[in-house]
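Trying the structure run again after the queue cleared.
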Amino acid sequence: MKVSQIGLISTRIKELDPLFPVQDMLLKTGQIDQFSSGIYAYGHIPFLVKKSVEKIISEVLTKYGCSELSLPVLQTEALWQESGRLDKYVKDGVMFRVKTDKANYCLAPTAEEAVVNYARTRLTSYKQLPATYFQIGLKFRNEIRTRGYLLRGKSFDMMDAYSFGKDENDLNCEYENIKQAYLEIFQRLGLNVQPVGADSGDIGGNKSEEFMCLSAIGEDNILFDTKTGKAFNAELLEKPDYATYLKEVYGITDTTALVTRKAVELGHIFQLGEKYSQAMNATYVDEQGIQKPYVMGCYGIGVSRTVAMLYESSLVMNNGKFAGIALPASVAPYPLYIIPKFDDAAKAELANKIYQALQTDKVPVLYDDRADISIGVKIKDSKITGTPYTVVLGNSLDEGLVEVEDNRTGEKTAVALDQFVDYCKSLCGSR
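Done. Tokens:
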């Protein structure tokens, strides 16, 4: 891909948001665009990063036996009246509503109602259970306090999954199945994420765990028990029976041995039980021919939040100052940023041949074709696109070498020119 085609803005930036410097850099260089408070557009590279995240989530959940689908975001309010949640969501001002002369609709902030409606026409027998559905797509919530650019917005991308089982055993098995899938997803994404005990909130249900990414920019306080090694969200201490709850669910009996850490919530899993299946008369026929409500679980990953944390976790500092962004190879759409020297006709021609060879072999790289931009500016730009590696096709070509710089560590590796295409392929193969 040519840099001239991705809409990158070359600009001298004096100050960055001290709390969210990477996303501020994305905004100021045109890689994301703010349309309104909490509403953002993704430019070329962040969009591909988001697609990489979605691909990993989809691959892992499918591997763990989950079925992917797509539910409508625009839903009738009658569906939410059926579950009994419409009045609360309207009263809290969370829901965006659309009134027409035919019916009243809403932009769904979550998908319990839609997925139960979908499942109850398909999962009619105990022989079809347990089953887990998931989708990845947009959600809408009227967040009064948007925060952290992509971390908390009014529109956001989310993966939500729902399990349907016959009994508590099915629920526990599917819950643990998804928990393991989440751990694999975040491990593949290269994020330091830990499951912690949490409150179910408005979703409802019993057991609940959040998947927290430890970070100084987090707005959640996580309490680690140094005796058991377990952790939970500090909000659990607000429960009137928190001591009994922590003892029964997590085996924590001494709250004096707790250490506080900041973290960002990227995922959440719930044991819903029969709350929605009973409210919406969603049942299956058991072995004795009796109609029974599904025992459900609910599981979510904030895709937009995960993209934001991937970027913020990819910050490169040099002597206490912002030095660039180096995304993990697992999600970087272009592992290499190539800078040719256009002031040397022979080297420029060779650089173009190298790029064409990479294109022929379908090796995704960024090629800075901008003839009116200096080498110095191009090198600076190469460090803010998130590419893990940068190469300047310049003087080392006289020796038959290409010098590849690791944008995270600054280390340089000399690669023989005739091996450069294969080397680029190996960088892509590590994703």
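Residues 335 and 387 are 5 Å apart (CA to CA). Worth checking whether this holds up in the mutant runs.
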